[in-house]
Amino acid sequence: MEWPSQSPDLNLIEHLWEELERCVSGIRARNADKKFSQLQTAWAQIPQSVLTNLPRRCQAVIDSRGFAD
């Protein structure tokens, strides 16, 4: 896959972190074990589309020549 020279960060893990944060935002935990359990559950529920949309996001950057108008 060709990457444009002015490409923003298309790091897949950033999209996964964003999805994970969205899933657990507003959920309080009494201790670290509970929070870890919540994070594990949310991680398992992240839709596959978050992973499979990377080529589409890359193409959008290529189409915009590496920057937003």
TrEMBL record:
InterPro entries per UniProt: RNaseH_sf
GO terms, molecular function: nucleic acid binding
Highest taxon listed in the record's lineage: Eukaryota
Protein name (database record): Tc1-like transposase DDE domain-containing protein
